């Protein structure tokens, strides 16, 4: 079973997928945080939510698509500054905050939005290209892979 998502091209270079790095930041606890819930902005290119009294913010790949088509697990000054400015001007205007953590994760996109779940030989199954929805799709993908075994 090959379920390496964005890293699959290292094993199967011909497969239709493009790595897409997502960058995230997390604030320290914010005093009197009013934000409650999960939100999307700019057609889903930004996503944010509260984690208790903290704000988790990620996205903005659309600000630098070409450089974010990578499987390098690093953050960039450009996008982290952009996210922090979005936090300051849109989510927490006129509020003090500090960033506690910054990280990135790699998704797999492709020409089609649907995942690739297929047998490539009698002994190999591929389950990749989850288009940023891996956590949500994992149980169903598992069922589909089990049916192929």
Shape: elongated
Sheet with most strands = 5 strands, antiparallel
Supply the CATH architecture of the largest domain.
Answer: 2-Layer Sandwich
Looking across the biggest beta sheet, what order are the strands in?
2-3-4-1-5
Multimeric state of these chains?
Answer: single chain
CATH homologous group name of the largest domain = D-Amino Acid Oxidase, subunit A, domain 2
SS class: alpha+beta
Radius of gyration: 18 Å
- Straight-line distance between termini: 10 Å
CATH topology of the largest domain: D-Amino Acid Oxidase, Chain A, domain 2
Give unreliable regions as ranges: none
The amount of beta strand, in percent, is 25-35%
Q: How many beta-strand runs?
A: 7
What is the count of helical runs?
3
Q: Give helix % range.
A: 10-25%
Order of helices and strands: EEEEHHEEEH
| Name of the top-level CATH class of the largest domain | Alpha Beta
Give descriptors for this structure.
7 strands, FAD/NAD-bd_sf, alpha+beta, D-Amino Acid Oxidase, Chain A, domain 2, 5-stranded antiparallel β-sheet, 3 helices, 32% strand, 149 residues, two-stranded antiparallel sheet, FAD-dep_OxRdtase, elongated, 2 domains, FAD dependent oxidoreductase domain-containing protein
Task: Give a concise summary.
This protein has 149 residues and is α+β, with helices and mostly antiparallel strands. It has helices at residues 65-68, 77-91, 134-148; strands at residues 18-27, 38-41, 46-51, 54-59, 99-109, 116-121, 124-128.
């Amino acid at each position: 079973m090959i379920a390496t998502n964005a890293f699959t091209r290292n094993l199967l270079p011909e497969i239709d997928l493009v790595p897409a790095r997502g960058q995230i930041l997390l604030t320290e606890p914010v005093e009197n945080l009013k934000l409650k819930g999960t939100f999307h902005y700019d057609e889903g290119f930004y996503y944010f939510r509260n984690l208790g009294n903290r704000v988790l913010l990620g996205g903005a790949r659309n600000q630098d698509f070409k450089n974010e088509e990578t499987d390098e697990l690093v953050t960039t000054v450009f996008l982290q500054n952009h996210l922090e400015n979005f936090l300051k001007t849109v989510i927490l205007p006129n509020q003090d905050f500090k960033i506690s953590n910054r990280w990135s994760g790699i998704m797999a996109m492709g020409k089609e939005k649907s995942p690739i779940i297929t047998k490539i030989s009698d002994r190999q199954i591929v389950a990749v290209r989850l288009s940023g929805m891996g956590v949500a799709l994992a149980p169903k993908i598992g069922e589909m892979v089990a049916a192929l075994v």
